[in-house]
Design brief:
Low-confidence stretches: none
Strand content: 5-15%
Number of strands: 3
Number of helices: 3
Helix content: 40-55%
Number of domains: 1
Radius of gyration: 14 Å
Length: 94
């Protein structure tokens, strides 16, 4: 995990590229390798970005895997979420 320490160390956004893996592999990696590091950093907010296609059940499982660091499943973004955000902000700037 790479991160920058800010004065408040308030937000960690992590990008995980598991595009050719099943969601279960990502969840296992988050539980085993990333969650202890996230807890050590003690961010006020944590968000996860992945290109994996995620359904609501997948997001619930990811949230449970890194509990209590994720506020809610809205802090888990996948490719469709990113495309929607880009389209929204592109339209709102025009």
């Amino acid at each position: 995990m790479r991160y920058a320490v800010a004065e408040s160390n308030s937000i960690v956004v992590q990008c995980k590229h598991f595009a050719s893996s099943p969601v279960s592999k990502l969840i296992q990696h988050l539980q085993k390798d990333e969650h202890p590091e996230i807890l050590r950093l003690k961010p006020k907010r944590y968000a996860l970005v992945t290109p994996l296609a995620l359904n609501p059940s997948d997001k619930d499982k990811i949230k449970a895997a890194v509990h209590p660091t994720l506020r809610n499943t809205h802090d888990i973004l996948w490719v469709d979420d990113l495309n929607n955000l880009i389209a929204y902000f592109k339209v709102s700037q025009n």
